[in-house]
Amino acid sequence: MPRPIQARIDLSALEHNLQVARRASSSARIMAVIKAAAYGHGLLRAAEALKTADGFALLDIRDAVQLREAGLRQTILLLEGFFSADDLSLVAEYDLACVIHSPQQIAMLEAYPRRGGLQVWLKVNSGMNRLGFAPQEVPAVMERLNAHPAVRDITLMTHFSHADEAAGVAAQLEMFNALAAPYRLARSLANSAALLRYPATHADWVRPGIMLYGASPFPEVSAQQLGLRPAMTLHSEIISVRELDKGEHIGYGGQFRTETNMRVGVVACGYADGYPRHAATGAPVLVEGQRTRTLGRVSMDMMTVDLSGLPDAKIGSNVTLWGEGLPVEEVAYAAGTISYELLCALTVRVPTYS
To answer: Could you give the residue ranges of the DSSP H alpha helices within the chain?
Structure first.
């Protein structure tokens, strides 16, 4: 028999969460973000479930080509644009939209010999200070793009650094709107957090990511409160049960010592599956739907859970690591990280099914 760990992908949850995004975004078009294998959910599987989106955003041009060859005709946006002049032939052949964020990309584009057809999303650095042109650089860049015979249309975009925090988006929004005002161009600003919290950011395109997969972008608001459903449930089984005396140590480094005589279970899941090694004792898990906690250090292939008060738990009992009944944000919080990391970190050795 195969090792029992698996991840179930609920396609109906993806569809549901897309509708939540659509209702929240008013009349803006939806650019579904499916980078990183759709946050670990599977690129083509997620794209099919999200096929009513107006567009898709990702990083790898090979993934974009896969979507086109699978028959998807929506706008497909490369969020970091092209990385070499050679990419431009594929961009044109497969009708891909490209983020332009650097002078090097402008130079490659200007050396491109073909005419017409390219969709450009010009990225403005409004305060995130990762990618994008500074506001004072934008007029000159716009002149170069407008003069280029290959550029078909231009969308202005930016990205918020604090949309999920108390600092909010006001300063970045004001800067971007002032810059965009002279241009009659489509605009895109809102990620999941801004989409849900700041209607003034919706503009022409919104770019939901984490919310599509049923996780909240906010530390203080649950996915359930937002009307979202988890799309991924990571589950496994107990493969061993031990009766330990008070004072015994568990796992590498003996980081947990039994407080009383305890019954513990070993679960077929570890950091080589994508569960965070830095999750300390107390991270929540479900055993046959009942909440308990992890004990000691997570190993490469196994972890230990507390079976105190769960007399019916045994070898073969189902264990939910996150997903239905156990929000991934809660597990992430216990591990000192964010839900994005857990979902994206699921490794290829974990089978997924829908």
So the answer is: 11-24, 35-40, 43-49, 61-69, 87-93, 103-110, 138-147, 170-180, 192-197, 328-334, 339-345
